[in-house]
Design brief:
The chain is α/β, with parallel strands linked by helices and 266 residues long. It folds into 2 domains: 2-48, no CATH class; 54-263, Alpha/Beta hydrolase fold, catalytic domain (Rossmann fold). The protein has 9 helices and 8 strands. It has helices at 2-7, 17-22, 26-50, 57-61, 104-112, 133-140, 154-165, 205-210, 248-263, and strands at 69-72, 77-81, 88-93, 115-119, 146-152, 172-176, 191-197, 220-224. It has an 8-stranded mixed sheet with strand order 1-2-4-3-5-6-7-8, sandwiched between helices. A hairpin with a 4-residue loop joins strand 1 (69-72) and strand 2 (77-81). The chain is globular and about 75 Å long. The chain starts with a helix and ends with a helix.
């Protein structure tokens, strides 16, 4: 009888599920909270990245094909010279959180000079997430004799990363308000053009000067007086930038001219 009483003693029965939940170790509760916070942070970052700066009206107009340039959007935004066989290819990476179409006027102008220009769209509008995007483009357009890669701001950094990891595949690098994250100073086989604005508020001239050690000694530098950061594209103003003292068309014209001279097509 004593044994039976002991077996049915409420004190020895299995505790309810709610009690077990309350007894979860502190580290498990902490891990659950961390996972929830991580999910919230990831969602915020995705929303932030997808909220890209849209192209201005002038950029949308440059997406139209003309008698001299054929524009296609699949699988990449491509500007193909008409009436001539392009020998040079230029792969351009957009700036961070900037719609790829915002660089259409620049690409269109270069295509008119006989250069095949391709602008790939990037995951979450961040080229740094897909720095090797150029490889597939180069494979498809194997007819090109010379390849140049480049980009604006974070796109330029991503393009430099491709150059660093793919030696002998790219002959020239063009950076607009940008610099590499790792040194290319020893690459005496690489031609580099660095263009920046004197009024840039996001990457000031002093910062650009300090980063020269990351580029080959023969790098060509072009400083655009009065130029800012955002006017290398056509997507409006950018938070943190300084106001330019020249208009966008002037900064674009100087940029196109510098690139054409560098590539020998002016």
């Amino acid at each position: 009888m004593l044994l039976m009483a002991h077996m049915h003693d409420p004190k020895n029965s299995i505790p309810p599920l709610s009690a077990l939940k309350r007894r979860r170790p502190f580290w498990m509760r902490l891990l659950t909270m961390f996972a929830a916070l991580l999910l919230v942070f990831a969602a915020v970052m995705v929303f932030w990245a997808l909220n890209a700066a849209p192209p201005m009206a002038a950029a949308l107009a440059a997406l139209q094909s003309t008698d001299t340039v054929e524009v296609t959007s699949e699988p990449w935004l491509t500007f193909q010279p008409r009436g001539q066989s392009a020998k040079q290819g230029f792969i351009f990476y957009p700036g961070g959180r900037v719609d790829a179409r915002a660089y259409a006027p620049l690409a269109h102008a270069l295509a008119e000079a006989g250069i095949l220009v391709v602008i790939p769209s990037m995951p979450l509008n961040l080229a740094i997430l897909a720095p090797n995007s150029a490889q597939e483009i180069m494979d498809v357009h194997s007819e090109m004799q010379t390849w140049t890669i480049g980009g604006h701001s974070l796109g330029g950094t991503a393009s430099a990363a491709f150059v660093a990891s793919h030696p002998n595949q790219v002959q020239q690098l063009i950076l607009l308000a940008s610099y590499p994250s790792e040194s290319l100073a020893a690459r005496d086989d690489l031609r580099v053009l660095s263009i920046y604005g004197a009024a840039d508020g996001l990457i000031p001239p002093a910062e650009m000067e300090a980063k020269r050690v990351l580029l080959p000694p023969n790098t060509v530098y072009v400083r655009i007086e009065g130029g800012d950061h955002a006017q290398f594209g056509w997507y409006g103003e950018q938070s943190g930038d300084n106001p330019a003292t020249i208009d966008r068309a002037s900064q674009q014209a100087q940029t196109v001219r510098a690139i054409e001279e560098f590539l020998g097509v002016d």
